[in-house]
Amino acid sequence: MLGPVILAASRSDRMRRFVSAAPGTKQVVARFIAGETVDQVIPIVQDAVDKGLEVTLDVVGEDITTREQAFAARDAYLELIEHLKELDLGTKAEMSIKLSMFGQALEDGHELALANVRPVVEAAAAIGTTVTLDAEDHTTLDSMFAIHEELRKDFPQTGCVIQAYLFRTEADARRLADSGSRVRLVKGAYKEPAEVAYQQKAETDKAYVRILKILMEGEGYPMIGSHDPRLISIAQELARKAGRKLDEYEFQMLYGIRSEEHLRLAAEGHRMRVYTAYGTDWYGYFMRRLAEKPANLLFFARSILTKG
Fold first, then answer.
1. Cα separation of 289 and 297, whole Å?
2. CA 250 vs CA 51, 209, 218, 288: distances in Å
3. What is the pTM of this model?
4. Which of 4-18, 112-126, 242-256, 274-288 has the lowest mean pLDDT?
5. Which residues are catalytic?
């Protein structure tokens, strides 16, 4: 069970320093992180669009400790939107935002995060795109859902993420499906206690299917966040049974993982969106990618040994 160990390490400053200094880190990080700056990531967005794909962009960085850092995170997304506007990419690229990056954990964090995210959502809408609020650990979700509901009053296209491994998620899915929300369903990538989350992959997979069925049969727009071939097939079958057209749901996969599958689904006529992260504060995001799949960790270990 390496996953929980890696997730614990994602919060360790000592491990952050070790991983950052490891000789093979840069090579592996480049597999999952599209670049450090807007200028580096925009050509990758354009290339994806040229291949028939869509993109959601995440400026990585979650360990916000000051209001100034939260304002800087807001401004980074506003800068991104300006670049998308200049290149007329608004209809093909949306944004994913972690509210922790916008100051959610600080004093008066709920109000601060809402105040910071609103201008980003407004700017995104002005260029024809939208924002999806990422789910983080379970203690932050009530605040995230409340901000999502508030934003949807003026920007109903604002999306949110739900995590299959949490016990609460089936109820959240019913509420969101009834409200017609855009909802990305993922398995979950945070270390959660047994009191609130399934601890076994098989249980999480079963919950994923139950929740996906709720979303497909509901009034919203499901976004299937998974690389699992079995779950992708199940999603296609559930969509067919629910009478959904190909543009009434979409698949989402991470940049750097199963890239050929991205192209295959797009070629079949599916909406296929690539979750593309960039920025300098990559550590937490990178460690969760390692935790999700042992093969990623082995790839990292081999790189360290090869470069050492």
1. 9
2. 16, 16, 15, 23
3. 0.85
4. 4-18
5. 134, 184
